[in-house]
Amino acid sequence: MIFENVLIVDPVYGEFCGDVEVEDGIITKVKKKECIEPKNILLPGFVDTHSHGYSGIDCMNATAKEFENWANFVAKDGVTYLFPTTVSGTKEELERVLKEFLKAKHPALSFLHFEGPFINKEKAGAQNKEKITSFSKEKLPDLNNKVKIITAAPEINGFEKLLEFSKENNLIISLGHSNGTFEDFKKAYEKGVRRITHFPNALREFHHREIGGIGAAFSLDFYVELIVDNIHLSPDFVKLVYKLIGPERIILITDSISATNLKDGIYNLGGILVKVKDGIARTEEGSLAGSTLKFIEAVKNFRKITKCSLKELAMVSSYNAFKSVEMNPPRIKEGYPAKLVLLDDELNIKKVIVDTPN
Ligand code: FE
Known about the structure:
Distance between the termini: 20 Å
Strand content: 25-35%
Radius of gyration: 19 Å
Helix content: 10-25%
Number of domains: 2
Bound molecules: fe (iii) ion
CATH superfamily of the largest domain: Metal-dependent hydrolases
CATH class of the largest domain: Alpha Beta
Largest sheet: 6 strands, mixed
Strand order of the largest sheet: 3-2-1-4-18-19
Low-confidence stretches: none
Mean pLDDT: 96
CATH architecture of the largest domain: Alpha-Beta Barrel
Order of helices and strands: EEEEEEEHEHEEHEHEHEHEEEEHHEE
């Protein structure tokens, strides 16, 4: 397959015109040339490190087949690397998710993200408080090298042990659902933690005498996941993050739930009932409960709000996500997996290639 006369957007080399050849799922040739008004833009496939469900599928009770269907759905939104995300669950519940995920076969299925259960009940958001707990490794099933991210609050009992466990098991800790102080975040940072989950949703509010996790993100070099749906964050906040944290550290995510791609109604988010009205998902108490955002919409929203360059768009939609989990990031470069998204100049999806096995 060949993409001719496209505007190639590589997160390192930037934007240039040319042809890209793909063979057996690998980029075999990237040829720079003078193009006359390239109509289409080629970006690395998107990475969604935080998604609970899609189109009636919920991570906590998905079958292997549903994981595969889910990956097919999101591929239409440009996602070529999906990290299905749990909510807080018991060992048995998480074990069941892992068992089904292990059976699922789809080139876009990357790793699982466990959001909880080692988080702070005070910042549970839409998570079931009864399942939230302190850390001990006995509370986790055998991870089989299939879990990459665990979202945890730095102030919970056992957090130090969780950090040790994460190093032994090739896991990345992402700080979130936390009422932690700046000191808690700084301590975690000093021990190598570099990631914050759906910033600044479910964090302690910013106070000028206790700047908390929000202050930590603005003053230390954390990567931050952002839900850019214009609901979880105001466009002004997104602009602020773009200005102060910058496109090198922003990771777009969807935090999508099973209601995504479906009509308004009542849905299940890992056992919690969620009401979706006008596309906004809330629990009975009124907490936001994930989103119904599609990844391509997040990409469009981010570009519209920040007026960022296409290179920066490639960084926030794939490159930074992999950097934040210490994996080799997607590029448009010879020898790299051919997981690609072709867009028109209004960022509408024209084609997605996802078939390279992980
Ligand atoms: Fe969350």
